[in-house]
Amino acid sequence: MPRICSICQHSNREKINRLLVEGEIFRKIAENFSLSITSLHRHKTEHLPGNLTKAKEAQEIAKADSLLEQVKSLQNRALNILSQAEETGDLRTALGAIREARGNLELLAKLLGELNESQTVNILVVPEWIALRTKILNALDEHPEAKISVSKALESPNGSDS
Ligand SMILES: [Zn+2]
Prior knowledge:
By secondary structure, the chain is mostly helical. Helices cover about 70% and strands about 0% of the residues. It has two domains: about 45 residues; about 90 residues, no CATH class. It is built from seven helices and no strands. The C terminus is likely disordered. It binds zinc ion (ZN). The site of zinc ion has 5 residues, from loops.
């Protein structure tokens, strides 16, 4: 018959867990929260590891989220630079911004892929990338030579298009 754990059910569970992790002596915790030392022992060895693992996962997800935000903000900056460079006809800067934007998209795709159980994401089929590529090439219609080199730069570095 499974016994109900008085600590797992406790309203101060988080606080007790923290005290256990910090190494507070059992007798003191037991006195403060009216618990038995036996149940504290059992909870620490049998239930605490699972609780800690969950907390760590939540932390990892939060970290990944903030990483994602940073890449998105980098991407916005690269796209702003690209627009400005297009307006002034500064093709060298535009090309740099395109490379930057492409790198950000790859990173973004990788991050999102890792969040979705590490499935492989092909950057060349990400809708945002396709839209960006089309926009770039259209903008270069009046500069055929630049269009060729840009279009070369936009190809997959490892040549796999499938
Ligand atoms: Zn427990």
